[in-house]
Amino acid sequence: MEKGTIQVYYGNGQGKSAAALGNAIRFASQGKKCIIIEFLKSETNTDYFEKLEPEIKLFRFERSKDGFENLTEEQKEEEKINILNGLNYAKKVLGTGECDLLILDEFLGVLDEGIIDEEDIISALESKSLITNVILTGQNMSQGLFKIADNVLKLESEK
Q: Model's pTM, two decimal places?
């Protein structure tokens, strides 16, 4: 049995989510199950992902069609509740091992926004099923996540 890893793709460059999705497709092509949970993103057309089910499932708990950064403070407070629901679902997935790959897309931004604290997610990651692989994406890396990650890749724009 192969041990699952924790990978982080971060930085100001493009391609973090695409790299994570590439891994999901690679896992799915091997008959493995993948769950993607999007955080802090504006709503996109998810019809394509329906074609990838049941191997790849996409979840978005936020209700706003706009990105988190474009919301009013009142709307942000409402969305924080939805984001916490997404986090609770991620914790359930991590604990039960119901997928081979869990992608928490733009999750590092949830830490940046102070919606959750670093210790909470580190605790969830440390209690993950042994075989579950996890990929986190976002712009800024935290020291705690850096320490527990197996692989950290920084993507930066050069031009």
A: 0.90
Count how many residues are written for the chain: 159
- Reference 138, options 159, 96, 108, 112; nearest CA is 108
CB 102 within 8 A of CB 94: yes
CA gap 11, 86 in Å, rounded: 23
Please name the CATH architecture into which domain 6-154 falls.
3-Layer(aba) Sandwich (3.40)
Strand partners, 7: 135, 151
Please name the residue ranges forming H helices in the chain. 16-29, 47-52, 73-96, 108-112, 118-126, 143-148
**Under DSSP, is residue 48 helix (H, G, I), strand (E, B) or coil?**
helix
Exposed, middle or buried, 153 (CB in 10 Å: 0-12/13-18/19+)? middle
Ordered by start, the domain boundaries in the chain are 6-154
Mean pLDDT of residues grouped by 10 in the chain (159 residues)?
87 92 94 92 64 82 74 85 91 92 94 89 88 95 95 90
Q: Is 55:31 a contact under the CB 8 Å cutoff?
A: yes
Give the pair of three-digit tokens for residue 117.
Answer: 């604290």
